Amino acid sequence: TGSTRPQRLLRAVQKNATQGDPQSVINAIDHFCRHKEWAMNVGDEKGSILDSVVSEVNPSTALELGTYCGYSTVRIARLLPPGSQLITLEFNPAYAAVAKQVIGWAGLQDKVQLVEGPSGDLIPQMKDLFGVQSFDFVFLDHWKDRYLPDAKLLEECSLLRKGSVLLADNVICPGTPEYLEYIRNSPRYESRYFKSHLEYTKVEDGLEKSVFLG
Ligand SMILES: O=C(NCCNC(=O)c1cc(-c2ccc(F)cc2)cc(O)c1O)c1cc(O)ncn1
Ligand SMILES: [Mg+2]
Questions:
Q1: Cα–Cα distance between 112 and 211 in angstroms, integer?
Q2: What is the predicted pLDDT for the residue at 1?
Q3: pLDDT digit string (tens) for 61-91?
Q4: How far apart are CA 79 and CA 74, in angstroms?
């Protein structure tokens, strides 16, 4: 019973990053994934686009679908204003266990609520569980065939307000064709594609930013 890739990624953070320093955690993960083992974090190139959108929105309440090892959780939470909250949902308990420790190493545990479970079950509970009225920002990075049903669920649960921003990873690779088709053709969204590359590679990928019009 050897270690898993997420466990080896966590060990690299504990070895190379400074506790309480989110940027050093980001740098340690990017170094590990570029020079040791590829992993499905949003990465530094798409991560810079994520940073610029988060900074522009400056969300009070943010939601992340798909925590994995917590890399994008740290990228988002480090930019949040005081008093704001990031809720991140992860289905896979092994991923969640690693992410909790990565977020803790960065010292961002007070800004983040990590919830384990299927997004389709948890989204309808957001108001009851966390007293959330609506999300200012949503980062979609979980199972690619869940992007569309979960976007529709957010609408149906009135968890989006005029101006809420959805940012979707991997719309080219692995690809989210049904989501793109819906969101680009819906009169309820204004969408823009940010061309980039699959994390740590030269393969094309990109982020789709969609503003809910209400
Ligand atoms: O795998 C679960 N989540 C990760 C979703 N994310 C991805 O699948 C993902 C994949 C890739 C990717 C791209 C090219 C390639 F060759 C292989 C993988 C890149 C990314 O940036 C992702 O974000 C999962 C498990 C589980 O048990 N329950 C719920 N979710
Ligand atoms: Mg991704």
A1: 23
A2: 76
A3: 999 999 999 999 999 999 999 999 999 999 9
A4: 9
Burial bucket for residue 60 (CB in 10 Å: 0-12, 13-18, 19+): middle
Q: What is the C-alpha separation between 189 and 148, in angstroms, rounded? A: 13
Query: DSSP label at 1?
Result: -
In this structure, the residue with its CA closest to atom 16 of ligand 1 is 174
Count other C-beta atoms under 10 Å from residue 181's C-beta: 11
Half-sphere exposure of 201 (CA within 13 A, CB side): 14
Compute the CA torsion angle 42, 118, 25, 113 (nearest 10 deg).
130
Structure tokens at 139: 């980062």
**What ipTM was estimated for this complex?**
0.97
Beta carbon of 66 within 6 Å of any ligand 1 atom: yes
Most informative mutation of 49, 143, 208 for ligand 1 (most atoms within 8 A of CB):
143
Query: How far is the C-alpha of 148 from the C-alpha of 106, rounded, in Å?
Result: 31
Residue of 30, 199, 205, 208 marked catalytic: 199
Please tell me which residue in 44, 150, 169, 208 is annotated as part of the active site. 169
CA atoms of 73 and 45, how far apart (whole Å): 16
pLDDT given for residue 65 in this prediction: 99
- Which of 72, 46, 58 lies closest to 193, judged by CA? 46
> From the CA of 128, how far away is ligand 2's center (Å)?
28
Separation of CA 27 and ligand 1 centre (Å): 21
